Amino acid sequence: MNAIATETTAETTADSVTEIVLPGIVEPAGLEVRVRTAPEPAVGEVLLAVEASGVSFAEQQMRRGKYYDQPAFPFVPGYDLVGTVLRVGPDGDAALVGRRFAALTKVGGWASLTVLPAADLVEVPEGIDPAEAETVVVNGITAWQMLHRRAAIRRGQTILVHGANGGVGSTLVQLATQAGVRVIGTASPRHHDAVRALGAIPLDYRAADLPAQVRAHAPNGVDAVFDHVGGKGIVDSFGLLARGGTLVSYGTAATKNEPGSSRLPVLGLIARLLWWHLLPNGRRTHFYNIWAGKRRPATFRARLRADLTEVFALLAAGTITAQVAARIPLSRAADALALAESGTVTGKVVLVPDAR
Q: What is the pTM (predicted TM-score) of this model?
């Protein structure tokens, strides 16, 4: 299931860039490989050699045309990346060259080289493997901010994490357990051993009596639920909250294959969460969006850098471990996307440079 080469399959050099292009609503095999002249960084920008870029749920939605604010086709996907600075733009800081950084990109990360604003870079500590660092960029920021900024979970509390084997879920489980929080995690039975190894109590997300099973472990309800599924199941998630608890919703996976608008499911979910939040029921609800606050760039970047630095420190110390599901060469992005969508892996599928 290899992507289609649309221009040339020549090896990428310092003067050229290999990109993976999403041409429209296609199956993973419809991804295209493009080689073009390498871009040059402008003022305030840097050119990075991409060492790792993740395959996240966002790209799975984008190929279906279901991501809330994706750009018009065709475009280069890639929500986040880790890479080394090759060049800086005019009057840029030459000290950045040769250093490894992570960045949140939303699109553009599935490339061998890319140009980014220098202000968006977050330094990766020495000694961390690029692919391992990549697994905690968007996943780590998302998990950290939901756990500590949105839900404000405290030691000794109990939380429910849906999709505990996924990229965000597995990171969230680890961050919570290292903070002294008890975690119940839903996943397919094939992933229960992996979820248990991360420190969570695994439950089958397909079980008809899932709410009762959660109640068996938390009779008074849980202090927070982290739900990326949405759909009808969001009602159960809200109902499982203890008084004073928080529901953090961060996706609509249940509707990814449904035809129609990509925005309506999200807007409907946000409206429901807002209504619940306003009710005098002693419970809070939030829709988490990693890009919230971007209209204030300095504050947004400072918060993102602070939170990712915290996660990188835990990774460097071995307090949490990177969940790399697979390392797949960039030119085989179609295989990587298909694997990520298969539901057979724990952690995150990572694109790495092709062997020279």
A: 0.92
Q: Please, what is the end-to-end C-alpha distance for the chain in angstroms?
A: 21
Q: Give the CA count within 13 Å in the CB-facing half-sphere of 11.
A: 6
pLDDT, one tens digit for every residue, the chain (356 residues): 444 433 333 344 568 999 999 999 999 999 999 999 999 999 999 999 999 999 999 999 999 999 988 999 999 999 999 999 999 999 999 999 999 999 999 999 999 999 999 999 999 999 999 999 999 999 999 999 999 999 999 999 999 999 999 999 999 999 999 999 999 999 999 999 999 999 999 999 999 999 999 999 999 999 999 999 999 999 999 999 999 999 999 998 888 777 778 788 899 999 999 999 999 999 999 999 999 999 999 999 999 999 999 999 999 999 999 999 999 999 999 999 999 999 899 999 999 999 87
Burial group, residue 181, by CB count within 10 angstroms (0-12, 13-18, 19+): buried
Element (H, E) at 19: strand 16-21
Asked if 236 contacts 212 with a C-beta cutoff of 8 angstroms, the reply is no
Helical segments of 102-185, H only? 130-134, 138-144, 167-178
Nearest to 312 by CA among 98, 105, 137, 142: 137
> Of 204, 200, 169, which is closest to residue 186 (Cα–Cα)?
204
| Alpha-carbon torsion angle 63, 257, 227, 322, nearest 10 | -40
Q: List residues bridging with 161 in a β-sheet.
A: 185, 226
Say if residue 74 is preceded by a cis peptide, omega within 30 of 0. yes
Integer Cα distance of 211 and 208 in angstroms: 8
